[in-house]
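Something for you to look into today, if you have time. I want to see for myself how the chain folds. Leave the record below and I will have a look.
***
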Amino acid sequence: MEEELTNLIKVWISALISISYCYYISSKLPKGFIRLLSLLPIFITFLLLPLLLSSVHFCAISAFFFTWLANFKLLLFAFDQEPLSPLPSNLSRFFCFSCFPIKTNIRNPSSNRIYNKPISKWVLAIKLLIFSFILHLYSNNYDRSQSAFLALFIIHVYLEAELILVFVRALLSTLLGCDLEPVFNEPYLATSLQDFWSRRWNLMVPAVLRPAVHVPVQRVTAPLLGLHLAFYAGMLATFLVSGLTHELIYFYLIRKPPTWEVTCFFLLHGVVTSAEIAIKRTRWLPRPHRAVSGLAVAAFVLVTAGWLFYPQVLRNDVHKRVINECLLVIDVVKHMLSIFLM
């Protein structure tokens, strides 16, 4: 464990040095190809950093922050696009907005958007209790079928991801002195796949992939396909890139060649989401009741996740490593509390 913590420190120091280079050197270069060329060493560095880590949590979080978010944000930065343009006022803000899933929450009273409201404290408390109960089941060797365990583990992954990102958002909001948008917006309340992926699930990802992938692909394909079909081409490209990025994160975790199941998961969702939007635009069918569409979305996401997204996790015992690391943290906290209360 000491070696892993040492490697984690090395990873974050390397990231800080890399971001400092981007802030003090690359930002002074003209936008476009020259700045992009100057960022290539950083892209490669961020691709390699997660390989230094073996812990599932440390590796996955570092891959998400650096390999995914930072690389895509720096790609946009090369062409003077948000969220890193205009250039933040100091290095610490540049580092935070580069590497963390945060975005300044611009409140607009005339806006009807519901996905920028902070999570209720009561909802957060309930989610924390549910997560604690799941860990309690793990610690007591809860006897369950494979399907029951898979459902439990899917809920575990969602709750843990949200709780971690809520903590990161709260900490950075305090340190930076600004209001930040939430990363999740109750995805279990989604009434369509479009609602789920664009307005409720991991909101920083579509906020980055939209200008980095969707818009450029749409712009390039529009002369060939027309504006209507180019929109769907951009959407499918976005889901494809998301799938490939998840494959890379899976590689960091299991260190085995990809099986492309995760890519198929995202391509399937891209196709079905595109079909859903096309049907809604034709207005041939009346919109179903929110309860019906919500259940349909939840069922589709859970079934396809169990079919394509999680099999690699189960086959390679990643779930066991996740659970063991969570229980280890609980044991450490209990030990520290016992020392403190003595």
Residues 204-254 form the longest helix (51 residues). The chain has twelve helices and no strands. The CA atoms of residues 23 and 90 lie 9 Å apart. The two ends are 26 Å apart (CA to CA).
